Amino acid sequence: MTLVDASPRSSVEEILERVRAGGRASVDDAEVLLDARGDDLERLLHLAAHLRDEGLARAGRPGVITYSRKVFLPVTTLCRDRCHYCIFVDTPGQLLKLGKPAYMSREQVLAVAREGAALGCKEALFTLGDRPEERWPEARAWLDEHGYESTLHYVADMAQAVLDETGLLPHLNPGVMTAAELEFLRPYAPSMGMMLETTSTRLYTEKGQVHYGSPDKDPAVRLAVIEDAGAARVPFTTGILVGIGETVRDRAESLVALRDADDRHGHIQEVIVQNFRAKPQTAMQAVPDAELLEYVAAIAVARIVMGADARIQVPPNLSDAGEFELLLRAGADDWGGVSPLTADHVNPERPWPHLDDLAEATARYGFELRERLTAHPEYLNEQWMDAGIAPRVTAMADDRGLAADDACGLRSGRSPRLETPQENNVGAVSRRDLRSLLNRQLSSNEYDELVAEADALRRYTVGEAVSIVVNRNLDSTRYSEYGPDGAAAVAREAWELGATELCVQGLMPGGEYLELARAVKSAAPGIHLHAFRPADIDDFATRNNLSLDAALSQLRDAGVDTIPGTGLKLLDEDVRARMFPADLPVERWVEVITAAHRAGFRTSSVMFYGHGETWEQRIAHLERLIEIQSATGGFTEFVPIPLPGSTVSIEEHRAVHAISRILLNGHIRHIQVPWTRLGVDASALMLQSGADDLGGTLLDGTVLPEFAAEFGQELTLDQAKRLTAKLFRPLRQRTTTYGEPGARS
After folding, report:
1. 476 Cβ partners below 8 Å, 6+ apart?
2. Taking the model in full, what pTM does it have?
C-alpha cells in the first residue's frame, strides 16, 4: 500500500503570499524557501527586501544600513572545544612556538582599545575560546598567577578597564555561559553574543563532524544560553553558520528556534547569517565555501522568518564586494562590526573593507551607511541594560539611537599622540624612551623585549595572516630596449601567470611614461599598474612643463593605479645631499607624494638603512611619514630596506622592523619584509618582529625576464606558504591595496 502525505508542501509562491498577508513561516515553509532558485528566488528576495524596508521605516531610519566601528580583542585563543573549521584557537604548544601569551595582558588590551578609540571606534568586541581553564593547565595556571577565579572574571575586569579608560563599549562574546554568569557579566557590557550556528545534533554527536568533541557546541546547550540571556534581559547577538555540513532542514529549524526564543523574550537584537569560509590547516580546509545563492537564500529566509523588525546582519569581509548587492537584496540591514584597526581574528584571511569603500558600496545600492552602537537603538534603555552602564551608552547615541558623530569626543578624531609625538606613549614605551633606549648598545634581553612588544602589536591589530601580492617587476629605465611591444608582452604574460600587479619604476631617458603605461593597460586591462616613483613623476612633470596635479592626472588617465613611494633613502636633507645626491630633494619628494595622495593615489613608503645613519635619524624619518599620513592617509605600507653591502646585524634588522611597527602602529597598517634583501630565513625572523607582509612574488616569467628590476629573485606562493606554515600563520594573497583579489575572467 502506498502512503500519501496528507499535507503536501506549499509552493514558494503560496508561502510568500501567506507571509505577505501577515502570516509566519513554519519550519516546513522555511525549508521550501531555502531551496528557492531562479524566479522563485527572485520573488523571495523581493519580499525579503520589502519587509526590511518596511521595518526600517517603522524604526524611523528608512534606507539606513548600519555597522559598528569596533576593535577586536582576542582575549585568549585557548579553548576547550575542537571545532574542525576553526583557525582562531591555539594549543599551548602552538602558543609556545608563536611566542604568544595564554591571555592578552591588561596593558595589551588597553593599548589596542586606546588605538581604536583614537580612530573613532565605539565598540570593543571581546572574543575568546570557551572555558580554556577546564581543558588546559596552562590557562588555569595563568589565571591563578594573576588572581582570577575564571576566564569570565578576567573578561569582566578587562571590560570594566576598557570602559573606564577608553570609553569603548564592551560587547562580550565569551561562548557558553550559565544563567548566573550572564547576570554577573551584565553590568560590564551593554550587549553580549554567541552564535547558535546550527541546531543539528548530528554535527555534534557523529565522529568526524565539525562539532564532534566540542562540549560547548551541543545545540541544546547553546539554545539554553540564548534562553537564559533573554530571561536576564541581555541584548543578544546570535545567528547561523551556513555551509558547515548542516542540511537545509537544519537551517530552517535553527532560524525558527531563534524566532521562538525572541518571541518569548524579545532580546535577540540581531541575527547574523554567516557563510562558511574554509581555513587552511583545519580539518575542513578542502571543503568548498558556502555557495553564493545558497547563502543569499539563507539571508532572505532569515528575514522572512524573523520578520520586518528584526536586524539581519551579514559580515562584509566574508563576501566579495561584487556580491554586496545580492546581500542587500536579500533583506540584510546591518554589516556588523567593522574595524579600522584590528583584523578579523576569526577569519584572518578576510580583511575588513575600508569604511569609505563600504559606505560607497552601500550608497551605490540605494542605502545610507550609518554607525550604530554595540546595542541596537531599541535596546538603549534601562529595561535592557544595567542601570550602571545605561547612561554611558545613551550619552553616545543620537536622537535615533545610532552613534552620535561626536560620541567619543577627542577619541573620534586623529590619534592624540600625533599632536605631540615626543611625549605620548606608544605601546609600553614613549618615543622619548625609545630614543634613550636605542642610542646605546642594547642587551639581548632588551632586544627580545622590544621585538616581543612589536609582535604583540602586530598580532592584536593586523592579526596573524601574512599577506603577499602576486606581481612582476619591469625596469622602466630600459624601456628603449624593449619598447611598447615588450612592455605589453610582459604585462600580458604576468596576467596569464596569475599576477594582479605589475610594478614599474625608474627614470626614463626618453620620457615615455604615458606610452609605457598605455601599452601595459592595453595588453592587460585587469592588471594593477603600480608605477613611477616620485622622482619619475617629477621628471615627467618637468619634461612636459606640467604642474604636479596635471602630471598625475595624465598618468592616471594612461592607466597608473598606485605609486611606489621609493626613490629616497632617508627623509633627511643633509644625509641626502652628502650621501645620495642623485635622489630627489627631501621636500620635493614630500611635495610629490603628498600631491599624489591628494589626487587619490595610494602609495607605499620606505626607509633605506645601514648607511651609517643614527637611530635618531631613523625615528625622525618615521615621524615625518606619520606627519604625511595624518594629513593624507595615502600610505598603504612601510618597507624598511637595508642598503646593499651594509653590515647590519640580524638583531638590528629585527629592531628596525620592531621600531617601525611600534611607531607606525595606528598610522601605517602594514610593515613589509624586503625578502629580496634579507633572504627567506631572515625574513621569517622579521615576521616575528612586527612585520605582516612579504611584498610581492616577483614572477620572472619567460617573456623578457631580464628586464625585471630584481630578475632571478622569485618567491612563489607555495614557497611563501611553506615559510608562513613554519610560523603557524596563514598566508593571504592580497591586491596592491591589501584587498581581496577578484575572480579572473
Report:
1. 504, 505, 506, 507, 508, 513, 516, 531, 532, 536
2. 0.89
